[in-house]
Amino acid sequence: MGKEALIGVLAGAFIFLLARGMDPTPFLLIGGAFLFLRFYVQGRGVEKNFEALEYTGERETASPVTFKDIGGQEVAKRELVEALDFLKEEKEIKKLGIRPLKGILLSGPPGTGKTLMAKAAAYYTDSVFLASSGSEFIQMYAGVGAQRVRQLFSRARKLAMKLGKGSAIIFIDELEVLGGKRGKHTSHLEYDQTLNQLLVEMDGIKPSEDVKVLVIGATNRADLLDEALQRPGRFDRQVKVDLPEKEGRLKILQIHTRNKPLASNVNLKKIAEDTFGFSGAHLESLVNEAAILSFRKSKKEIGEDELEEAIDKVILGEKLERKPHREELRRVAIHESGHALISELVKPDSVASLTVTSRGKALGFMRPAGKEEHYLYTKEYMEDQIAVFLGGAVAEELVYGERSTGASNDFQQAANLTKQIINSGLSTLGIVDEEFTPKNQINEVFTQILVKQEARVKSLLNDKIETLNHLAEFLLEKEKISGEEFRRVLQETA
User: Fold this and answer.
1) What pTM value is reported for the model?
2) Which are the catalytic amino acids?
3) CATH number of this structure's domain 246-316
């Protein structure tokens, strides 16, 4: 029964008893006892919740995570360690009049190691570590979230004193749930009350306290956080924990393979090159999946084939049992060969592998090589990528006379790149603004860019139509070929 309905029933019963001339006092006492019992049980639930957090803190102290266990985040680690030194070197910073930081915000995509960095921070500073999630504080009952925030800070101080520690680190994951911008929840103020209590607790952190408390928050949506959280004196420092670069991915792979038997032919540098855009969590999953594949094959070592297959599995998912009929499979081979041919023509050595094995929602896949990582994109580069995305559909049209639904995602990717060209001021329109530039002009240039690249792709594939068919037949026979095999076939048919 809902809270409003329960209140209505009780009010009705109270009026009914008065109307009948009965004394409602015994019923009020019973109801009061019931409500007291309910809130007592609810409070015990909160206690148990944070008792579990106490145990977490003790366990993390016994089984530490250190910064050496975290790869690919050298800049973030350096910035975090500098902030932690303010907590660790208390006497030195007092001489310079430095105020210790109250909060550190770790922001970045999921799986980049924010939780691991918070645990390593606790070990580095020899602090008690309490972990919680923003969603644990938001409850339907008014005041419960604020109560939990108060108890979390209280528990941190008590546990630190119990264990003889001079500092405690409170880690709040999914901070955007607890610390979202106030005023957006119009139904009730529970979210705002909980956030207000967190702000009050952070303001109450004093440098002179026996137990120094540091709050570390983690979020992948820093844009949703309330401004009051991000001002100086709350979360004083923001550390960006981004996706790792190639060298960072190599270090992460080395960390996750150090206790696993690798075959002598494994080249982790190549795996790092081929995993552009992977987070630390993706790379850990990749190594684990490669070990599982080796186990399935009754192998005692993890080979390069298993690692390469694990990349496809992490990107697309497990192989599917479904198998298209021969003619449909050949169309997929033509489609993927079209992508690969255009990719190789606009940028040599850019194809890592080709497959017509169904995985996830994909019937086939051309995986690009990631030897070079770009942070700025020119118009020419983006036009080349548009051409690669259109290569599959155009190849189907040249061979079969029509296209299929298999190119729908390719078209979406090509459209996104075309929008980026226009919005970046790289089209013939120059600098544009969606509010002031006429929409018909934007649409006209949008169409021109796509039509121009489509004509370019048709011209390139028309000159290579025999190579396209030969490559598709080879791919159909093998089901999956590496970039080296692909380039060997191109040389043979040149």
Assistant:
1) 0.73
2) 336
3) 1.10.8.60
